[in-house]
Request: fold
Amino acid sequence: MEQELDIEATPNKTVSQDEILQAALKLFAQKGYFNTSLTDIKDSVGLKTTNNLYQFFKTKQAIAEALREHILDSFSISIDDIRRRNRKASEQLREVVDLMFRLTDEAPDIMKFLLLGKTGEFLPDAPPLLETAPFNKIRKILQAGIKDGEIKAIDPLLAYAYFFGIINQTLVLVLDQTLPKNADSYQSQAWMMAWNCIEKKTAVGRI
Reply:
């Protein structure tokens, strides 16, 4: 059962750990990690003092660690579902891209934290994204695609770099508003360019 904290000043109100994480996510996306204080997070969830935060998290870094873990766990579960629903690597990758573009439009703070947050600067002991569970699963999709002949016979890391270099950079340009429209407006074009970089062309396809 999720832990909740009663606030003495407002006895009918409770604040959950998830509410603290959601408030921190929003602040990190808006102001950046280093420009966000524990006081900012405390004020955002309506706690009376920062001491109340310590019942959940001892430091701001601990909040960021829990937030990253929560986001990556959710992403990993989604990728498991995608892999169960689809057999071909191309189908799985297409759904992963669908998910990333949808999150960029519907939950941009999550994608800002992942793609723009530079978490290595404030979570130096955390593994890089490529070594986390969801991205290991994506690499396995690429490896399977290479084995099955859907994807060019190249190093899986290169396939990842070629494919997600285009996908991630498109999303970054949307998130920082360099591209003026929502992510959905660019999804088809980004997919086509990314997939063309790694697809193993058939003889018919080259005609």
Summary: Residues 1-13 have pLDDT under 50 and may be disordered. The radius of gyration is 20 Å. The beta strands are 4-7, 10-16.
